[in-house]
Design goal:
Blueprint (H helix, E strand, L loop, with lengths): L2 E6 L8 E6 L2 H13 L3 E8 L9 E16 L5 E18 L5 E7 L13 H10 L3 H5 L9 H11 L4 H9 L3 H20 L1
Parallel strand pairs: 1-3
Antiparallel strand pairs: 1-6, 2-5, 3-4, 4-5, 5-6
Length: about 200
């Protein structure tokens, strides 16, 4: 039980990029240990509690391994890291260290074979292309043209303003095609709420 978890107010997906600002001692230690060992850490969504201070009281049992791709000293003196989601994980037994770092036993979830985009995915692919033009998405180097259903589903679920629960529903889904159908359902619901 020694895999570090970083509970955040976000749901990370494989192939997606996240910029983090690290300032708490527990996470500075975790990041330096991960970099030294060339290992990642688990990003799990907070369901109850806060990102800062005491360990989150409740977080999702499903998460994503984050691997550090880049780091820099920010102008405010804090450490900035850029991580990429690599593979999905399920959290087992959990322990909180005295410094409030959460450690867990994790199981890695198998990814299904990716599949090429179908004609019915044209609108979703166009939406991802449009998202790529947003400055924040462009800064992460995300969006644009993707090679298959997996990347399209993961990036859309990550970038679109769905609720944490909706994003977790997509993350838990094994089949890329089912993920895309779920995203389309959530999108239709979102558009319905906007026009209501």
């Amino acid at each position: 039980m020694d895999y570090p978890l970083f509970p955040l107010d976000t749901v990370l997906f494989p192939g997606c990029v996240l910029d983090l600002q690290i300032f708490e001692a527990r996470y500075l230690d975790m990041v330096s240990a991960c970099m030294r060992r060339g290992e990642g850490f688990g990003v799990v969504a907070i369901l109850e509690g806060r990102e800062v201070g005491e360990a989150a009281s409740r977080f999702s049992a499903l998460g994503c391994e984050a691997v550090i791709r880049d780091f820099q000293q920010r102008s405010n003196g804090l450490l900035g890291i850029r991580v990429e989601g690599v593979r999905r994980l399920r959290v087992g037994a959990v322990a909180v260290r005295p410094d409030q770092l959460t450690l867990a036993e994790v199981d890695w979830l198998e990814e299904c074979e990716d599949a090429p985009l179908l004609a019915e995915h044209a609108d979703l692919a166009a939406l991802l292309g449009a998202l790529a033009e947003h400055p924040m998405v462009a800064a992460l180097g995300m969006g644009g043209v993707v090679g298959g259903q997996q990347a399209l589903a993961n990036q859309l679920a990550y970038l679109l303003p769905f609720s944490t629960e909706q994003k977790l529903q997509v993350l838990v889904e094994d089949q890329p095609l089912q993920r895309l159908q779920l995203i389309q359902t959530f999108l239709d619901r979102l558009q319905g709420e906007m026009t209501a």
